[in-house]
């Protein structure tokens, strides 16, 4: 999903400014998405739309600008009757200034309603840029609308031709990092939820939206298969370490994204240490053996601790139900037993799991609000987070 952010003002007529420009953007998006020329689809974003609760407005808007592909703003003059210097809306100017730094002028479209003042009355830094103008009082509305729609589409097509819409290097790193996040989500969902959906994307949504109290109640007094709770995440941590070292060496990722990867590494180390039998010997309380599963060692020489959980069909057949790395022999032998989380440690354990959810949501916030999964057919699933969570295929 590629966001087009619209910075609007409320000083002038909504009908002829905000609503008109927004309608033009939506029409351009509809045309672009309908032609399916791009690997991804465009979406209109603005103000704090789609954010839950009572967020910090400035922080949300700046983050949205960081994550958008195109920035469109209404820089129409709002004080035409004033005898002094004519100015656009100050909030729009602030957002425009940030967008210039974050995106560059080539990804910015400034629109002016000349009903309230000609472009030569605008501040010098803006008036000397290529601006899109319209005047609904003097010209036919449909013609003006078509003009703006065509300009938006043309700008996007030019950016695509120049390779400025997609960053292949960043997408490569993100796709591989996302794989590690989703792998751990796939493991943790089997601890948090008693029953899991066959579609990972459905449970991903549930996990990213779960409250800490709900998570705690989900795992309290519930029997969980040992195979799920005995896993070690060293392999995932090592992969993230290599990827983070690579992005640091390329000077490509912003520091705030790298910080989140460091949090991932710290969390994986925390998880592995906390669930280690030596740290909390009685963390998991053994219950009964399951007769539904069998444990098989993988023959992958690159993954010496990789185990396969097979669900038994009959004496000679099973199907692969899960996989994971289990280090200790004693735990491998008990992987087909059910356990409960010791009440002495359950709040700490719930906090451990919930911290991964926090880190994952931080990662999504900083990387466009979606996971990218690249399959063999170059097919992408985009997973929107929190209240905006949406599946796109």
Observed structural traits:
5-stranded parallel sheet; 3-stranded antiparallel sheet; NADP+ nucleosidase activity; CAP12/PCTIR_TIR_dom; single chain; Rossmann fold; CD-NTase-associated protein 12/Pycsar effector protein TIR domain-containing protein; 393 residues; alpha/beta; elongated
Task: Explain this structure.
The chain has 393 residues and is α/β, with parallel strands linked by helices. The protein folds into 2 domains: 2-161, 3-Layer(aba) Sandwich (Rossmann fold); 168-392, no CATH class. Helices cover 45% and strands 17% of the residues. The chain has 13 helices and 13 strands. The protein has helices at residues 18-35, 57-67, 90-103, 124-127, 141-161, 168-192, 200-209, 212-219, 226-229, 234-250, 255-274, 329-333, 346-366; strands spanning 2-7, 42-46, 70-74, 108-113, 132-134, 224-225, 284-289, 293-297, 306-314, 317-325, 337-341, 382-383, 391-392. It has a 5-stranded parallel sheet with strand order 2-1-3-4-5, with helices on both faces. Strand 9 and strand 10 form a beta hairpin. Helix 6 (168-192) packs antiparallel against helix 10 (234-250). The termini are close together.
